[in-house]
Specification:
- By secondary structure, the chain is of the alpha/beta class.
- It folds into 2 domains: 182 residues, 3-Layer(aba) Sandwich (Rossmann fold), CATH 3.40.50.450; 116 residues, Rossmann fold (3-Layer(aba) Sandwich), CATH 3.40.50.460.
- It is 42% helix and 18% strand.
- The protein is built from 11 helices and 11 strands.
- The strands form 2 sheets. A 7-stranded mixed sheet has the order 3-2-1-4-5-10-11, sandwiched between helices. A 4-stranded parallel sheet has the order 7-8-6-9, with helices on both faces.
- Helix 1 runs parallel beside helix 9, helix 5 crosses helix 6 and helix 6 runs parallel beside helix 11.
- The radius of gyration is 22 Å and the shape is elongated.
- Bound molecules: adenosine-5'-diphosphate and 6-O-phosphono-beta-D-fructofuranose.
- The site of adenosine-5'-diphosphate (ADP) has 18 residues, from helix 4.
């Protein structure tokens, strides 16, 4: 248990997210302040399996708070789903004296941590993903920066779409979740938002709404697609063809995943990193740090992974009224 914890490992895993650096910095410095040794593991579980492990001191995390991405780097490591790889990771942790591991990533990364917890390693998860789709928490590191970056990009598209009376479809990230699309939909006053949780794949209906908006005096239309609904350029071509209208497609892709973290992402990530260390120092382990109903809290990792989130039904319901 964590009263015996001397050495804490920290890694970032899955898609990088702005604010991850702030979380790593907080784990390192709060850990040192509490008398722990800290080891940084490069490239997520992939780097762990290759023993890319370095000792961290307070100066190792200088000048990273304000940077996007993750200086520890991140990677997807599908072979980590194999039990033999998890056993190998446990042996490597033992060899390097790591008796607790802080995993900063999405729910896939937490599943990896859960497997290691099942094999006796103390783990703490910190939610880091721009997708905002982790059920146990109202906040994930990187979401705030990503939606702000996407919002500014869509504002630019709206300027030119209105000058030329165009229809634009913009694809935002979010894997199978529509949070980024929905938030931008409200922030950018989008005429339509197509998200996997709701879209019925009726493209004629999408076209009819564009036409109706024009009849109602709207000179431009902004449609925001969550990437999870499928191939946006192909969809735009089909709608253009049936409606004989010109549609410009923009895929924001990594533009919204990189970039300088917002104040909220720096502060929340810092608090979550410090809380991860505090939990270990208090004797808690196999927890996920979360932000729920206005409080920083923590959940058992098994329970956290069972919790279902989902989009705000109310935000979705009001969206089209607000852009009428
Ligand atoms: P995220 O953490 O952002 O959800 P992924 O789903 O890609 O991103 O997961 C990141 C990594 O976590 C994977 O590449 C893999 O190494 C590990 N992982 C995901 N699911 C599992 C699992 N069921 N068991 C073990 N490791 C997993
Ligand atoms: O999970 C973050 C995310 O950016 C998702 O929104 C997206 O589906 C995915 O990662 C893309 O991952 P990559 O291009 O790194 O494989």
């Amino acid at each position: 248990m964590s009263s015996k914890i001397n050495t804490i490992g920290v890694l970032t895993s899955g898609g990088d997210a702005p604010g991850m650096n702030a979380a790593v910095r907080a784990v390192v410095r709060r850990g040192i302040a509490k008398g722990k040794l800290i080891k940084g593991i490069n490239r997520g579980y992939a780097g762990m399996l290759k023993e890319e492990i370095q000792d961290m001191d307070a100066r190792s995390v200088c000048n990273i708070l304000q940077r996007g991405g993750t200086f520890l780097e991140s990677e997807r490591c599908p072979e980590f789903e194999l039990e033999e790889m998890q056993d190998k990771a446990i042996d490597i942790c033992r060899k390097h004296g790591i008796d607790a591991l802080v995993v900063i990533g999405g729910d896939g990364s937490f599943r990896g941590a859960q497997k290691l917890a099942g094999k006796g390693l103390n783990v703490i998860g910190i939610p880091g993903t721009i997708d905002g789709d982790i059920g146990c928490t109202d906040y994930t590191i990187g979401f705030d920066t990503a939606v702000n970056t996407a919002m500014h990009a869509i504002d630019n598209i709206r300027d030119t779409a209105s000058s030329h009376e165009k229809c634009s479809i913009i694809e935002v990230m979010g894997r199978n979740a529509g949070h980024i699309a929905l938030w931008c939909g409200i922030a950018n006053g989008a005429e339509q938002v197509l998200i996997p949780e709701k879209f019925d794949y009726n493209e004629v209906k999408v076209l009819q709404k564009i036409v109706k908006n024009r009849e109602n005096g709207k000179k431009n239309n902004i449609i925001i697609n969550a990437e999870g609904i499928g191939d946006t350029p192909k969809m735009a071509k089909r709608i253009s063809a049936i409606g004989n209208i010109s549609i410009r497609t923009t895929i924001l892709s990594y533009i919204q995943r990189g970039g300088v973290p917002t104040c909220k992402d720096r502060v929340f990530a810092s608090v979550m990193g410090a809380k991860a260390v505090d939990l270990l120092c208090e004797g808690a382990c196999n927890r996920v740090v979360a932000y729920k109903d206005g409080q920083f809290v923590d959940f058992d990792i098994d329970e956290a992974l069972e919790m279902r989130g989902g989009i705000s039904e109310y935000m979705y319901e009001i969206l089209e009224d607000l852009s009428m």
